[in-house]
Amino acid sequence: MSEKRKEQRRFTNAMFAVAWEDARGQSRSLRVRGLNVSKSGMRIESSEEMHTGVPVSLQAERHELSGKATVRNCTRRGSAYLVGLEFSEETKRTVHLPLVDSVDYYEVLQVSPNAEPETIRRVYRIMAARFHPDNPQTGDSERFLLLNDAYEILSDPERRAVYDAARRVGECQPLPTFELKEFVDGIEGEQNRRLGILCLLYNRRRADMEHPGLSLLDLERLMSFPREYIAFAVWYLRDRGFLQIGDNSDCVLTAAGADHVETNSPRNAVFHRLLRA
After folding, report:
1. What is residue 211's DSSP assignment?
2. What's the pLDDT tens digit per position in 106-131?
3. Rounded distance, CA 85 to CA 18, Å?
4. CATH fold of the domain at 105-171
5. Span 182-201, mean pLDDT?
6. Cα–Cα distance between 4 and 32 in angstroms, integer?
7. Domain 2-92 belongs to what architecture?
8. Which residues are CB-contacts of 20 (< 8 A; sequence separation ≥ 6)?
9. Checking phi first, is residue 179 left (phi over 0); if not, alpha (psi -120 to 50) or beta?
10. What is the biggest distance separating any 2 CA atoms in the chain, rounded to whole angstroms?
């Protein structure tokens, strides 16, 4: 029976919006990370405690899964909580596995794509010790397995070269998020395109501090919008001080721009989706 359960449960790194009512009847909502999922339920990592028996509503940010669930267990792990959810019968009928976002191994190890092999080894050793299942404070078996996968690829020069080539091909494709109606129509579309540029620049600076900029051509390619749409948004963001134009004419995020992203992302669904894209 345990083997069957293990086969049905799949790793996921998808992000979810979860809503529930606390003991005082007040509405609460939170953005959480999925850990694993099966046809009957899932486990999430939450920054807040959720009490057993509490019904919740959940909505995946980049997948179709949405519905109702009940908290079955909640265990503190370091500064976070691991929460087990059981889906309602209706939700069980709508779950399609696997529910897995594409994984960036450099993001998993939190290193630059230009990181030297020694840096990758050093960071892996630190993070593996932190998330090893035997660590009673911060152990996380799903994160530990993902770290091992990332290190196995990035520590082998030949496999890393193949992975980097595939990653560059993926980066050359427009992001499907920008095909949604909310990025096209009217003033709302204009506002969301500005958010899109900020999030692209935020992710770029986090991934590679030595080369933090994106050109207008890069933004055109990633967003699949004409230059005129992007130029207006860049003018506005530059005038607000959220980005600046570098010596090579690339757009570069400023500290004010990073503050704007981080301040608004917890309560803005568009920011959530873009930061994961």
Report:
1. S
2. 888 888 888 899 999 999 999 999 99
3. 11
4. Helix Hairpins (1.10.287)
5. 85
6. 27
7. Beta Barrel (2.40)
8. 27, 28, 50, 54, 55, 56, 57
9. alpha
10. 62
Whether the CB-CB separation of 14 and 60 falls below 8 Å is answered with yes
Predicted TM-score (pTM) above 0.85: no
Place of tokens 């397995």: 145
Query: What's the pLDDT band for 268 if we cut at 50, 70, 90?
Result: low
pLDDT digits (tens, 9 = 90+) for 81-106: 889 999 999 988 877 665 555 567 88
* Bridging pattern class, strands 10-11 and 251-253: unpaired
Each residue of 52-86: pLDDT tens digit? 999 999 988 766 678 999 999 998 877 778 899 99
C-alpha–C-alpha distance, residues 186 and 178, integer Å: 14
Amino acid in the structure at residue 132: H
Distance separating the N- and C-terminal Cα atoms of the chain? 37
At the topology level of CATH, where does 176-276 sit?
Arc Repressor Mutant, subunit A (1.10.10)
Q: Are 123 and 108 in contact (CB under 8 A)?
A: no
Share of the chain above pLDDT 70, in %: 83
Locate 250 and state its tokens: 């690339």
Q: Are 71 and 85 in contact (CB under 8 A)?
A: yes
* Contact assessment for residue 18 and residue 30, using Cβ atoms and an 8 Å cutoff: yes
Q: Where are the domains of the chain?
A: 2-92, 105-171, 176-276
Rounded to the nearest 5 degrees, what angle is found at the Cα of 30, between the Cα atoms of 26 and 31? Answer: 170
Helix axes 227-239, 216-223, angle to 10 degrees: 120
Mean pLDDT along residues 222-243: 90
